[in-house]
Structures are given as structure tokens and as C-alpha cells.
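Async update (no meeting this week)

Hi team, since we skipped the sync, here's where things stand on the single-chain job. The sequence we agreed to prioritize is pasted below, unchanged from the tracker. I ran it this morning and attached the output directly underneath so nobody has to dig for it. Comments welcome in thread, and please keep replies under the output.
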Amino acid sequence: MEVIPAIDLLDGKCVRLVQGDYEQKRVFDDDPVSVAARWIKAGATRLHVVDLDGARDGVRANADAVSAIVSSVDVPVQLGGGIRTAKDASEMRGLGVERVIFGTAAVTAPDEVAQAVSDLGPEHVIVGVDARDGKVQTRGWTETSDLLALDLISQMTDIGVRRFMYTDTSRDGTLAHPNFESISGIVRNVSYPIVAAGGVASIDDLLQLARIGAEAAVTGLAIYSGALDLERAIHEVNALATG
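Output:
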């Protein structure tokens, strides 16, 4: 299982939110490029970057920071937040982003997701399924739909999506541990790779996600707060896979 550090961008700064609440933000660094370098030095083989302004407003406000990160690293970058159209996705691929993540558009504009899969190939598209109490949230988690997570995944599978990122938004930014029951249910019922996010607080959490069968796990607050040593976490997760 791949351990992927998160870099969440708000007003060009590296921040963390509590349960996606924009009023509960904590700024960790003014220089996202230096943060990216830190995580790569610790052994990260991929970065998870989120444009929080874009997720909420639908306008990619951190394009310069994203471009700077991508051009400064030699590992793949996956990007979410504000990607609403196939054109947006193609533009991000043009910047060097390896995987683009659709969230809101998967609910509001599935045809755009289908077009992006056709244009870019399924290996470059992820659908982010952000759920609270099993129901999908959109627009930077500021709105909750009546759509169930598994139903959205089924719809997206039908149009060619082959990788999903599942986040329990009630756990995100809380260090309250992942919702293993929900993630396990998603992994059991979906035939394609699942990236798990939300609530990771310890190496034991990551090992449990690996045992459940997640392809990857995203960690944010735990590594920024010092609760989790990224280098050690990557080493132990790799040891589980090889041992």
C-alpha cells in the first residue's frame, strides 16, 4: 500500500481543515514547495495536492502553487479541487499532474468525467467520493447530497472510472482514526483500486488500511502535527507488504 502525504492549499498556503470546515483552518507553511520537498525526502513516492479554494468555489485559485510543486518534484502528483470539466482535467495534465481527481463534477456533471476518461485514459482519472454518514458531499464538503457513496461509485464505474478515493469527511483533520468499517465495505464491494483518506492518526491505522486492501492511504494532519513519522510509516507499511 502506498502512503501518500497531502498538501492542502488555501490562499497559496499549506493548511489543514477540521472536517473540511473552512472556518477551522490551521496554516502549517507558507511555502508548499518546501513542504513537498520535505515529504519526498521522507520517502514519499506520490503527492496528494488539493486546491481547497477550487473545491469550494469551482475556480482553481492555486494554479501557480500547483505548477510550482509539480515542476519541483520528481514523483507523480495527484490533484483535486475545482476540477469540474474535462478541459480542466486536460489543462492539469498539461501542467504535469499525473492523476486528476473529480469530486463535485462526478455528481453534477458526470458527462465531463466520462469525457476526461476518454480524453486522458482511466489511469489518469480518480473520482473522489467524500461522504458523511454514507452520503456524498460536494463543493468542498459544504453541501450534502442524497446520493450514497456506493451508488456514486457504481455510476462512475459504468462510465469508465477505474480508481476511487474514499474519504469519511467526519474523520478528516481530526486524528480520530479512519472509519475502517466503511472503508472495508467499499473495498469489498468495488472491483477497482481504493485510496483511503480521513482520520489517519498512527502507523497502526495505516497497517490496518493495508490489511483491509486499500491501494493507498492519504495522510495529512498526522504528519504535519508530528503524530506520525512519515519515513517510519512508509518503511513499516512496505515491510508489511514484503514480509
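Quick observations from my side:
The chain has a mean pLDDT of 93.
The radius of gyration is 16 Å.
Reply here if anything looks off.
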